[in-house]
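Researcher: Quick sanity check before group meeting.
Model: Go ahead. Protein one:
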Amino acid sequence: MPRILVADPLAEDGLERLRRAGEVTVVSKLGEAELIQRIPEFDALVVRSETRVTAPVLEAGRKLRVVGRAGVGVDNIDVPAATRKGILVVNAPRGNIVAAAEHTIALLLSLARWIPQADASVKRGEWTRSKFTGTEIRGKTLGVVGLGNVGSEVAKRAHGLEMEVVAYDPVVSVERAELFNVELVSLNDLLERADFVTVHVPLVEANRNLLGAAELALMKPGARLINAARGGIVDEAALVEALKTGRLAAAAFDVFVNEPPGDNPLLTLPNFIATPHIGASTVEAQASVAFDVAEEVAAVLAGDLPRFAVNAPALPPEELVYLRPFADLTERLAALHGQLFGGRVSSIELDFEGELAEHDVNLLVASAIKGVLQPFTEDRINSVNARLIASGRGVKLVERRSPAHGSYASMITVRIGGHELAGTVLNGEPRAVRIDSFRVDLVPEGRFLVSRHEDRPGVVGRFGTILGEHDVNIASMQVGRDSPRGSAMMILAVDDRVAPEVLARLREVDGMADLRYVELGPGESDR
């Protein structure tokens, strides 16, 4: 019978399910040395957020097949080390959705009616009713930033309160939004229209300070803001100023950049409500995540595929050697598309040509999904969960296979929103070979300026002059065109980061139709 070590407190529902899957040992508050000493005899390890599952712990787990995290985040688990050891990491991302959504509604009502402030006032012996005149939420517009699991549940509850709901989420399809009777709009439109704004996006780099001073200035005078997602999505210093000046009527946060927040100036403001990151803290949510992670661990121990794997099972070594550079290529092409063209993603089309079409391309499909969606989700996307995540976002996948009909033995084309990028692998190196109708020869990694402009004298020279004036070194240059004196595309690889003021000058060059600054890191292909 498999042996399961539970290293953090777990609700009884979860323990009961684990006992049906194996022999359970519960020992809390183990340090790394103690965990290393105990782990060699166990097949599974279950933790919450307190226990750190480090590389030495995983190395010592010679029988370990799965690590389960009772919750969403896996920051306390060395996932790459687990992957290298062939140990699955599973979590419970859905167990606290209702709790988080209900807490958001609680904060919304608290903002509308000054409930915490009124409570504190009465307990001080005051009875100043006029001081706490609130606002009704019926008929008001709620702006939901991020229409994922929690955001969509908040939207459903807001409709029950007779609110109008608009949402911003660049990787949710219109069809999925319609299921929740939500209008998809741009972020700026949402901020300008909403009476209440609530944030439900992950803290990935693309969302850090997503709502800064400029965005807060777009909000309606007297609007109210809620953040029960992650600290760092809202610029806290900018929010202090917006609340002090009265630009915003009030704000309520369950999360902060630093937790506990210490002497954060937000806590000194009378129109700011704070709770101590308790969005998921309900009896039901704790029981739900415990049972969900137990189900995942039990599935792995039974030899089944879990629903919520954070990493992916390894491919056969010979297959992985062939596919990994193509997976890196696919991820970078998809990421490049997002930076070049942006826009809403409703479908991802993938054409596999030549020898590549004869292989298992699931890893490549996952890489494409990851390249498109990873900047907008905290879920670690890999070949186990990629299709599930895409489906949950309403993103359709289209795959085609065909014999080679060009000059390359294998080629992949990524087509999204009317634009397509094609690439191949040459001598083990990923190469982009086409962007829409323009032929290129580009290693998709590093910093690039990509322009579309009129094919006429002076444009290229003006670019070089401006970059030289700002000490930006050009590493390489490619120029293509569709016809003489027609439209041209230029790709400049640069050694240095290009500042916003330099980009502004480049966009003013005569004949410039579009200019994008792109930064691409190496693909990860489920490493």
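Researcher: Fine. The other one?
Model: Protein two, sequence then structure:
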Amino acid sequence: MGGTEAFPGDLVPSVEVGPAPPGGLLDVLGLAPVVLDAEGRIALWSQQAEELLGYTAEEALGQYALPLLVEEDHIGTVLELFSSVMESGENWAGVFPVRHKDGAVRQLEFRNMRLQDQHGGFYALGLSTSQETLRQVERDLALSVRLVDQSPIGLAVLDPDLRCVTVNPALAGVSGLPAEQHVGRRVSETLPFLDAARLEAAMRRVLETGTPMVDRQVLGRTPSDLDTERAWSVSLYRLEDPRGRILGVAASVVDVTDRHHAAKEAERARHRLSLVADASMRIGTTLDLWETARELADVTVPELADIAAVDVLDSAVEGRRESVQEGSTAVFRALAVAAAYPTVAVQAADPPGEITRYEADRLVTQCVQTGEPIVVPHVANEDLPRIARDASASVLLAAAGVHSYMAVPLIARGEVLGALDLKRFRNPVPFDSDDVLLASELASRAAVCIDNARWYQQQRNAALALQRSLLPRHPPNLVGLEVASRYQPAGAVSEVGGDWFDILPLSDGKTALVVGDVMGSGINAATAMGRLRTATQTLASLGLGPDEVLRHLDSITGELEPYIATCLYALYDPHKGRVCISTAGHLPPVLLRPGEAPVLLDLPTGVPLGVGGVEFRSVDFALSPGDTLVLYTDGLVETRDQDIDARLHVLLTLMAGPAAGLEETCDRLLDSLRRGPVEDDVALLIARVRE
């Protein structure tokens, strides 16, 4: 029978024939075959036996195995085993001590069996290896199997065709299929919820290049938990045998869902902090009530909502502190509306400037009544009448697809001013607790700006109608300062001018010292001065820095055409022992320290108020007990016939005289510098740090 006739047709098996380089498992075990004849002589001796026991073939062949290899104490046992194998043909396996050529006894693992030749003769074949080597291989194999089976990391081996060879229980748990159902299948068949095409493309690259892919994150939803997005870290590496032959690719899959969600939450938190920081820069850039409301609406869209509306209680806009009682209606004045995209839902919002009354059952009314956020994560049809202003607005909101709603109160200094109204249409995610926190933070920051703006607006309106007294009274009990001041009108007829000074104690113990000069004279200049004084007092009460105060005064002065003014604003902090000064085209103050020569403070001059378009800067100085600041208007030192630098030198010379009380110093300066007819009024303010 020919070699191919046993396999008719196309059933001839495909056999891979070729040399096997050393390094395989049999080589690691070092199996040593030895054949004994029926009388116990060594008939065949292998090279492996020589390496294992030390005897060459010439030394071993023809010798009786017992005296050559077995200790005397074990000869009886060996004879029994030899007889049993040769007579019954039963195989025997076990461990037996064998003597090495060097005299040492070694434990060998044996597999013994009977052989028969063509003449009916019997032989004994012994396959032996070092017990130590075999046990090490067994331990390594058992350890490998246990590591794979018990590992919490999903492990899989795929052949070069990317079909599964084996998976461990951890990976089977990910797929939901028994481990045996993975064998022979591709990734797309066992893990359809992953991006199988990309994974298989990555596996091919690993097979082709040998470069591992480490910690590639893959997202998906398992069949057992479709509501939760899960994340796995996938690593791939090529498998090769000791001879370098490519066996396939191994994959490890680690569930990193918690890490993924934590990273997403951290990124979300960073984004929200960035949004809050951005809001801090964008909201409150002016003291205009309407602009501040628009800034709040704009900053929330589209980051937080698709449509945002800012509505303030009409009583708050008018300056009346009235709370909305439970069960009563609320009257709102709409200030701003912003939308992420064109939509009919904008028509459902109150137009800016419109005053609307909302009934007690409306959610926005409940928001300002309780001072707490109102959230409807999933808006149903029955919720719309409590959200919209009327039936037509409900229809518009439903048509636009509103699905989530939130109203957050605007609270400043303990007073509920209104509400920030937020709706989602295209954004598919409902409002959650994190959104409530973010909206509340934005509303809180904006409410203070809105309150400042409406308060400033009220004060500014009052300042436009009223002229303050030209000679303010010294406030009692200034913290850390004693002051003296003078005002002298210009000319013999005591014509009222535009010079002024102010001493403004603030709620935190600080004191604002102000001197200013509106160009010109007469009632108009005095009226302009009164407006600036009122605005300055209002701005100072808001806790703004000197440069910010001047920036707002510059804007106000621009509305008082054709007037411009110079001004110096100093903010003294007794807790830090420092003064912060900013100037708008005004002459520098004099600083006198005990035991030192008086100096003119080096300040950036700035431009006069009303010029506009130029930033103001503040400079900080330390003040110690006994230090004296002299603030003045140009009427104190300017004359027609002398250079201003010379006059300032005279001022410093007068201040360098013997120490005196502040009232006496005021008189001395006026007497010395204001001799003869004068054409300009003067304001003088001296402040000394108390011991």
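Researcher: One line on it for the slide.
Model: Residues 1-18, 463-468 have pLDDT under 50 and may be disordered.
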